[in-house]
Design brief:
The protein is of the alpha/beta class. Helices cover about 35% and strands about 15% of the residues. The protein binds pyridoxal-5'-phosphate.
Length: about 400
């Protein structure tokens, strides 16, 4: 009890520096052209799927990320869904997905009648455990018809969906090596990683396809929204078509060429996203100040560490993440409840995929580390505007 109270006091000390009644986990920060662009959409009657902000947002995302092509979506999940389809994921194909994950990749696989197959993550990267995955694939798969074949389930494994958790790069270069050897397509879930780089390259641009999210809780927001980025022209053309209900181009005829989806981002959301992207460098510098202050204030505490990311990475620090030392796992839930009771919105990571009821029946490799990590992570309020409360600079 004494330890637990001391731990809680430690955390409260930090938040006592911030003179704010309620501290949400991550709020948007509007200080640019948001209102101007939104009212422009309204005054021009350009709030839906036609308008000049769509191209502007796509073009500036291409420039910022370095991707050759960008297609906007109504959210990140739909970008993952269509991304997997363009990579050729079909009914009964397996898709390798990290066990510590948001639900989007598993659901997107199921939308395609494919089979999510969960892989373990490690504490160093909070992403796919490369060594374990190599061993697992060596033991359980073979190449058949020039594709990866799961000897146990007798199904093909078509793609892998590495996740960069909280904007911190996973070992994406190692994932690419595995994908090459085992003939896997790569869709990077970079939903939380706008503004994050690994070896100076923007996350989402390593794989065949990357998916971004601009949901309200993300580092920049378009209200709701997402994007698919790629260097492959064919994929970009196919993705744009599928997200636009596969409607053929014609000045007045309405002809649809295949089963498509209404996954477009409306112009009004693109206007908001574009204005936010114009400010991303500032936002990233504010996020760094917030992160560094957390890191400094908690530097000598004995209960937890603050996750900083892999070497060679330049993360966006989307959510400040504490990792409890193993012996304090028992306090995990009570710390979160305590902080919430003080209006400090702390959050655990999602329940591992293998512990999610409707996903339990799908194949999975040993997930001990994933289960352990899930009991140790706590996210703390991380909004960019919190920089105002700290003296410590970048
Ligand atoms: C890791 C991850 N993947 C995918 C998504 C899906 O994004 P969206 O909420 O825009 O559908 C999110 C965001 O919520 C996410 O955090």
């Amino acid at each position: 009890m004494k330890l637990e109270n001391d731990l809680k006091k430690n955390l409260l000390f930090f938040f006592s520096k911030i003179n704010k009644k309620k501290l949400p986990l991550h709020e948007p920060f509007f200080f640019g052209n948001e209102k101007k662009y939104l009212s422009e959409c309204i005054s021009k009657n350009a709030v839906a799927s036609v308008g000049n902000f769509i191209k502007k947002f796509e073009d500036s995302l291409k420039k910022f990320t370095g991707a050759k092509y960008c297609v906007l979506f109504c959210n990140g999940t739909s970008a993952i869904h269509i991304g997997l389809q363009t990579l050729g994921v079909k009914k009964n194909d397996e898709v390798l997905i990290p066990n510590i994950n948001y639900i989007a990749s598993a659901n997107a696989s199921l939308y395609l009648n494919a089979i999510p197959h969960f892989v373990n993550v490690n504490l160093d990267s909070l992403g796919i455990d490369i060594l374990q995955l190599k061993k697992y694939l060596k033991k359980n798969t073979k190449i058949k018809n020039n594709r990866l074949f799961n000897i146990k389930t007798k199904r093909y494994i078509t793609a892998i969906v590495p996740l960069h958790l909280y904007g911190y790069p996973c070992q994406i270069d190692e994932v690419l090596k595995i994908a090459k050897v085992y003939k896997l397509k790569v869709l990077e879930d970079a939903a939380e990683s706008v503004g994050s780089f690994f070896k100076k390259k923007h996350l989402g641009t390593f794989g065949d396809v990357g998916a971004l999210s601009f949901n309200g809780n993300k580092i920049i927001t378009s209200g709701g929204g997402g994007a698919l980025i790629t260097n492959n022209e064919k994929i970009a053309i196919q993705a744009r078509k599928l997200a636009n209900v596969a409607k053929k181009k014609h000045s007045w005829k309405m002809v649809f060429s295949e089963k498509g989806y209404n996954y477009r981002m409306p112009n009004i959301n693109a206007a908001l996203g574009f204005s936010q992207l114009q400010k991303i460098k500032k936002i990233l510098s504010y996020k760094k100040i917030v992160f560094k202050n957390y890191k400094k204030i908690f530097s000598d505490n004995k209960y937890f560490s603050i996750y900083s990311g892999l070497k060679d990475s330049s993360p966006n620090h989307w959510l400040v993440t504490i990792i409890l030392k193993k012996k304090y796992i028992k306090y995990h839930e009570s710390i979160i409840k305590f902080l919430i009771s003080k209006n400090i919105e702390a959050r655990p990571v999602w329940k591992p995929m293998t512990k999610t009821n409707y996903l339990k029946k799908y194949p999975a490799m040993n997930s001990n580390t994933s289960l352990d990590i899930a009991k140790r992570i706590i996210n703390l309020p991380s909004s960019a505007y919190l920089y105002k409360y700290f003296n410590l600079k970048r």
